[in-house]
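This part of the workshop introduces the protein records we will be handling. A record pairs a protein's sequence with a compact description of its fold. Comparing a sequence with its tokens is the quickest way to learn the format. The record below serves as our worked example for the rest of this section:
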Amino acid sequence: MSPFQLTVQPKLAQPSDDGQPMAATVAFSVLEARAVTQLVRQAYGLDGAVAGCLYNHSVNDTYELRLDARRWYFRLYGCGRRRAEEVEAELDVIDLARAAGIKAAACVPAAEGIRQIRMLAPEGQRIGVLFAQAAAPRFWQLTEPICGRWGQAVAKMHRAFDKAPGALDRPILDLGYVIEEPLRVAMAALADVKPAVEVLSRVGAAMSRWFSVEGRQGEYGLCHGDLHISNMALDAGDWPVFFDFETCGYGWRGYDLAAVCLVLSARRISQAGWRAFVKGYLEGGGRAETVLPANINPWVVARLIWNLGGEAKHFGRLGVQNINRTQLAGMVKQVEEWINEHGLFVA
């Protein structure tokens, strides 16, 4: 680990009756972009007038740094979200993909080749990693040829992951990860919306039954974990460039592809785009059983539930008053509609 640290002093609460400061635990913080930029410049030896801003605040925070036409993205992991060993394994996964010719945003090492640094925030120590820009920003839309290249690239990524030298220190994307924990969070947030809770309870039980038999029969291996379109850019030749491998782990490849299926289902290119993706996936070396509707459609339900749990958790970080129950209930309806449309879990 790097010795570079940013120390932030939390403000103390008013004194208690005995005159001593009251202790309070900080749940999470957002560090000032200027201070983060200064530290990153020092740790990574970036010369010149580097400008920085908070790019995205979520379970992890991302800061964008600019110098002339160059851009970097500094991810500051949430305190306790990942161990140092897990982060190193994530970066190893990216290296696996890049070594196989898959285009992915590269980690930029700090002094002496160190790939992660630490910042001391009010809530504790946070790990930071600097990434190069995935591709030059430009406007683009999904077309059938792009969907086909997307499928080829994902298949090649899966095949590259199969060649990993031994088990990497990454999470298991099992029933607990993709269903049980997201359901717990979502049902707690929707406790006052009884119809939604009842739907989620039934879906959870049905998914558990399906997973215990059919779900385990699909292709298993290392997955990207979040193949959403927002985690992909295009290079000058319209080939995908992947980034944000933070949720990569070991799971069923159907779950990985379900994220793509869900993205395409929400767009006008829906069926034609999915057909092009599947064709590209098979051409890239993907297995035919992984893209069968009987395998993909239930995993889409899992993906919808995972999204729902993520949204509920995000609202919860902002306070219960900010939980948008109407939006969450709408996401529950989407789960129900997908199950009905595809005739899933019918006894």
Notes: The mean pLDDT is 90. The longest strand covers residues 124-132.
